[in-house]
């Protein structure tokens, strides 16, 4: 096993050196792209070369499409292709490092345990990274849905008081300008900037819906654009129906988050319970043995 580990270690290290020399300065601009969560830029260039050399994006189109879709939601559509490559390169880097670690453990301790651990980590760590990305996307979508219910409630009140839809949306967004980090208000403020930059209301509103990429926002956009010209009671009724549906959705999301929070407390409670049993039971067993 030590011989196999040594051969694998030499191949992994030598392969990285060769691929690094081949790619040269090809990915120099990509390495300077700002993206949160990327920690292995220093050793990533050979992995990017492997993705290009073996056309992994074409071989696994569904995987890269879903990955790019998630990255677009978190980081925006600009440079989403380059960010997808960076994210895939980061995952390959972690797999490469875990395989190297497994080889080193085998050389140090012998046996095949190190190779098994390294192989498992090389698979599980990238899977955990992807799951974390999808968790962030789900949280973002839920945050948008929760806040959209309150936003729509305000818009209904303002429209009922005689305000136009465009002015009502602008007023609500400007009032929340301090919460620019919130995904919904971030996209709303960008939509208002587009309006002030010369875009039509319909075009900027459709772009807002595409950037959010949430079903509830698409329903809100469709309801506004379809009933905007009609006005009157039909428009107010459509907004009220949509508002009721969003509040039910908000209740369901809040309930689900509460259940998830309570389930996360089960393991710490079990650990505390076991510690209490040990603290209480140890003196009793010691007295019985005496």
Automatic annotation (TrEMBL):
Gene3D superfamilies: Type II secretion system (T2SS), domain F (1.20.81.30)
Xref: InterPro entries: T2SS_GspF_dom (IPR018076), T2SS_GspF_sf (IPR042094)
Pfam families found in the cross-reference section: T2SSF
Transmembrane segment boundaries: 113-130, 265-286
Protein localization: Cell membrane
Keywords: Cell membrane, Membrane, Transmembrane, Transmembrane helix
Domain of life: Bacteria
Residue ranges of every copy of the Type II secretion system protein GspF domain listed in the record: 152-283
Keyword Phosphoprotein annotated: no
Protein name, per record: Type II secretion system protein GspF domain-containing protein
